[in-house]
Amino acid sequence: MQRSIGRRLIGLISVSLAAGAMTAVSTGSAHATGTPSTCVGIPVQYSLDGGATWSTDGRIDGSVKAPTKITVRLSALAAVGCSYPVSLAVYQTQGATWETSGQQKFLGMRTTSLSLAHPRAVLDASAFTPSCFGQIDLYANAMSYNGTANPLPHYPSSAVPSDLITVWNSKTPCASLTPTPTPTPTPSARSSSPAVAPTSPPGPQLARTGGDNSQLLVYGASGIALLALGAVVLARRGRSDNS
Description:
The chain is of the alpha+beta class. The protein has a domain at 28-169. It is 23% helix and 21% strand. The strands form 2 sheets. The chain has a 5-stranded mixed β-sheet, with no helix packed on it. Strands 1-3-6 form a 3-stranded antiparallel β-sheet, with no helix packed on it. The longest helix has 30 residues, at 213-242. The protein starts with a helix and ends with a helix. Residues 1-28, 186-211 and 213-219 have low confidence and may be disordered.
């Protein structure tokens, strides 16, 4: 009789411990999709140093370099047939915190699926690194919050995704852009200056009087007339002397 009671007590204790373990695993976990009902949530750990150290901290220090390459893993063995999607999305923002992030711009994302056969993976979104203020979300689903398929994150009206594993907000402000001065164009052979119409060379001018060709003709004609008149006078005098 005592042995039977003892066995029952041991059985009850085992069931209680199993139920407690299931509850602990389900808290703050990645959710299985398209899998049997026996699948339970399993916490996802992440690493920023290639797997040397692991964390479940819900926020990454914004003063560190943008964590666009993150290693993720399941913290417990998954059941056969259970898979757990994990995504890493990158955004450009207008401020250093979620509350001041303003209008966000989707830059890109990477997605993986963890399972019993594939419990660890690397999400590399380095091609989408924000240039200054930015936000990086690591979350437990495969949806894209890009403003088209699903709404963009926006404080306070659109707190997506709801199943965040961790988040990073950049503390690096965007430097104000100094306008680049427009260089003065160098005149080209075709557009250096307006074309000037050719002009005829000036005619001969008298250095002192400034007379032109018509004045020379008048003077010449007057001289010829005087010579003719002189010749007539001389001819008459010759006749009178002979008579």
